[in-house]
Design goal:
The chain has 540 residues and is α/β, with parallel strands linked by helices. The chain is 35% helix and 20% strand. The strands form four sheets. Strands 2-1-3-4-5-7-6 form a seven-stranded mixed beta sheet, sandwiched between helices. The protein has a five-stranded mixed barrel with strand order 15-16-17-19-18. A four-stranded mixed beta sheet has the order 9-8-10-11, sandwiched between helices. Strand 3 (41-46), helix 2 (51-67) and strand 4 (72-77) form a beta-alpha-beta unit. The chain is globular and about 60 Å long.
């Protein structure tokens, strides 16, 4: 029996795609290998959000050539969608499969030989040619939607299968488990793609338009996880707050695009061509139907139709944190008190150059509403430094806003130019040394805020789910408000408990289980509340 191995790079959405890929290979009768060196087929599920992500993927290909030179390498994911020819030219790569055809990766790897095969053989008999293939050919890119053979060095050949991502309606869905915590907290991707056009971001062009996993499928996946014994599930997406907006029209969207004649090319850019198609698609969908489904409706359905004990909501854009969503998250004892709200910059001028859809005062209002509604919640943000043209004064606006707002953690990123994005062509690229120093300043502020949040919990009782045991001395756990904690004693994973916070050790809380009348840990049943855990907190 052939063995396969999947290596995932990047975000939770990519990891979720990897879990769905694993399902595909297992369903086709392959065996999962314990390591890449032991596999006949190795899948590299790539990210392309930064230049560093691209470098990591290329380094992994070179490493595979050293440790397992006879394996067949299938490269898929966002990097494969963005630059398939670049990856196909690397020695050792057998297939390059874009996100457009990722849902057929296992079929491709197990049933196709190296060489030319018409796409019709993958599509059930009728080749689907995207409306702007000619534009790609005109600007020097290989034809999209076609499987072709690229001759490489020596006897190597590579199959490249990349199609029109904006005509793509598939959404790979399978729960993903953290390697160290496979018995707890599965992550379920319920949305993919993005209709925003932030000037720095390549993701819409490699993941396509926003599309949602229908509510009934989400419910079915969550029920399956609950029946398997999982107590907390994280729902995620590329732009999670847009869940449901496409559902009434998604079944018609690709037909609408095919019936619309391709527009005349207005730009030689690959991204410009895809952008035009995206606008045609979006316009066609708006003419067909408008969705009244929202993320808050999905959350209510999960709470009412499943027995899930704890639902955690991953990153949601600030404009999608409606009063209704904030109120529901605050009121439900089954929703983790945790809000991740991407910020990117505290400067109005920078946000405008980024093409973000909110202003600093809008963002501030959302964060303060969340804090008022959930006094003990974890509140996090993504922040970018070194965006083109970012002056010292604009950076100071970001720094001041971060100092002012009640964040409990931050993810700070240094801008990385992505080929073809508008920001990459903007003047005033910030020197690397300056950007790194700004990154250091914000990380230092974030560390202070997290420490203050943790200190405020010392002496209180918090709820937490056990993750894994560190031996007889302690068990690692995660609090409802997203803090790691070492709980004294050995405890079974995937159990909710009450623990008293007795101190801190670095970035971890130190806790002692509360005990019942017979001296056993105070395990919590579904619907327990963390309202008793701590007094209101103001983090400065």
């Amino acid at each position: 029996m052939a063995r396969f191995y999947i290596e995932n790079f990047g975000c939770r959405a990519t990891q979720a795609d990897g879990a769905a890929l694993e399902r595909q290979f297992l369903e086709r009768g392959l065996e999962h290998a314990g390591a890449a060196r032991d596999a006949e087929i190795v899948v590299l599920n790539t990210c392309t959000v930064t230049e560093g992500a691209d470098k990591d993927a290329r380094a992994s290909i070179r490493r595979l050539q050293r440790v397992n030179p006879d394996c067949r390498i299938l490269v898929t994911g966002c990097y494969a969608q963005r630059a398939p020819e670049e990856l196909a030219a690397l020695p050792g790569v057998t297939w390059v499969v874009g996100n457009s055809h990722k849902h057929q990766a296992a079929e491709i790897a197990t049933s196709l030989s190296v060489g030319f095969v018409p796409l019709a053989e993958l599509s059930g008999g009728q080749e689907r040619i995207p409306p702007f293939r000619k534009e790609r050919e005109r600007v020097g890119h290989p034809a999209l939607g076609q499987l072709f053979k690229a001759q490489l060095s020596g006897d190597r050949t590579s199959n490249v299968i990349v199609g029109d991502i904006f005509a793509h309606t598939e959404l790979l869905a399978a729960p993903v488990f953290e390697a160290a915590n496979e018995r707890t907290r599965p992550n379920l991707k319920v949305q993919d793609g993005c209709d925003n056009r932030c000037s720095f971001c390549v993701i819409p062009y490699v993941r396509g338009q926003s599309r949602s996993l229908p509510s009934e499928r989400v419910i079915a996946e969550v029920r399956t996880l609950v029946e398997a014994g999982y107590r907390e599930v994280v729902i995620s997406g590329i732009n999670l707050g847009r869940w449901g907006r496409d559902l009434p029209a998604v079944r018609y969207s690709s037909l609408a695009v095919r019936e619309t004649p391709p527009e005349s090319p207005s730009t030689s850019s690959f991204f410009g061509a895809q952008e035009s198609a995206a606008k045609r698609t979006a316009g066609s969908e708006r003419r067909i139907a408008n969705s009244d489904q929202r993320l808050v409706d999905l959350i209510r359905a999960i709470l009412s139709q499943t027995a899930l004990e704890r639902l955690r909501i991953s990153s949601v854009e600030p404009m999608d944190w409606s009063d209704e969503l904030i109120g529901l998250a605050a009121a439900s004892e089954r929703i983790a008190k945790h809000a991740h709200v991407p910020m990117q910059s505290g400067s109005d001028r920078v946000l405008r150059r980024m093409h973000r859809k909110y202003r600093p005062w809008h963002y501030r209002e959302k964060i303060l509403k969340i804090r008022k509604a959930m006094p003990t919640a974890a509140i996090g943000a993504d922040v970018m430094v070194g965006f083109p043209g970012e002056t010292e004064a604009e950076f100071d606006e970001t720094r001041s806003m971060i100092e002012e707002l009640p964040f409990t953690y931050l993810h700070v990123f240094t801008y990385s130019a992505r080929p073809g994005t508008p920001a990459a062509e903007q003047p005033g690229q910030v020197p690397v040394a300056v950007a790194r120093e700004r990154n250091r300043v914000l990380r230092e502020i974030a560390a202070g805020k997290k420490a203050a949040f943790m200190r405020s919990l010392v002496g209180t009782v918090v709820g937490a789910i056990t993750l894994q045991s560190g031996g007889a001395e302690f068990t690692e756990a995660l609090t409802d408000n997203y803090l790691k904690m070492k709980v004294s004693g050995h405890h079974e994973a995937n159990r909710w408990m009450d623990a008293k916070v007795e101190g801190m050790n670095g970035e971890m809380l130190m806790g002692k289980p509360m005990v019942g009348p017979a001296g056993e840990p105070a395990w919590r049943e579904p619907g327990w509340s963390v309202a008793h855990a701590a007094p209101p907190i103001v983090v400065t």
